[in-house]
Amino acid sequence: MPDAPAPAEPALDRDELDRLVEAAAARDRDAFAALFNFYAPRVKAYLLRLNAGDTLAEELTQEVMLTVWRKAGQFDRTQASASTWIFRIARNRRIDAARRAARPALDETDPALQPEPCAPPDEMAHAAARDARVRKALEDLPGEQVELLRLAFFDGLSHRDIAERLGAPLGTVKSRLRLAFDKLRRVLDPDTL
């Protein structure tokens, strides 16, 4: 006697599907299994229509259904039906996959991605000596001139912004910065910097 055909999948209405998602939110594995059996083939077919290849559609379907399991508690039947909610997840996963595929691969030999080469030891020693001379020269400046240099060069403020912050006239700020540079120039021979 030939095998009897498998019974047709029972038709589920919107309320039943919504209840299954809500039951899955309560971690009802049987409800989730019913959801999976109902939606997984439909989601895969939908993803195939969105030009996902068979393998990608299968992977995305698994991701979608896993998301349904994990986020079933976020489902709100007053906002959308279970079908709308699940297919929106599928559409978003497909968009994410398309964006990932559109990103160019990084070229590991791109000079912008390479670390700066280490300076030779003699250059490092020269730079350290220069830095020590600059620090010493700054220590010898009056405190207000050091503050002006810090605001101008480390904080990146304009002369006008410095004047406003310190409540000093713009001309005073400019002349004090000029004095600081002159003192530094005398102490630090510009040819050795």
TrEMBL record:
Name of this protein: RNA polymerase sigma factor
GO function term, MF aspect, one: DNA binding
The keyword DNA-binding is annotated on this UniProt entry: yes
A GO biological process held by the record: DNA-templated transcription initiation
Similarity comment text for this entry: Belongs to the sigma-70 factor family. ECF subfamily.
InterPro entries given in the database record: RNA_pol_sigma-70-like (IPR039425), RNA_pol_sigma-70_dom (IPR014284), RNA_pol_sigma70_ECF_CS (IPR000838), RNA_pol_sigma70_r2 (IPR007627), RNA_pol_sigma70_r4_t2 (IPR013249), RNA_pol_sigma_r2 (IPR013325), RNA_pol_sigma_r3/r4-like (IPR013324), WH-like_DNA-bd_sf (IPR036388)
Keywords: DNA-binding, Sigma factor, Transcription, Transcription regulation
Positions of the RNA polymerase sigma-70 region domain: 36-103
Domain RNA polymerase sigma factor 70 region 4 type: 133-184
Record lineage: Bacteria, Pseudomonadati, Pseudomonadota, Alphaproteobacteria, Maricaulales
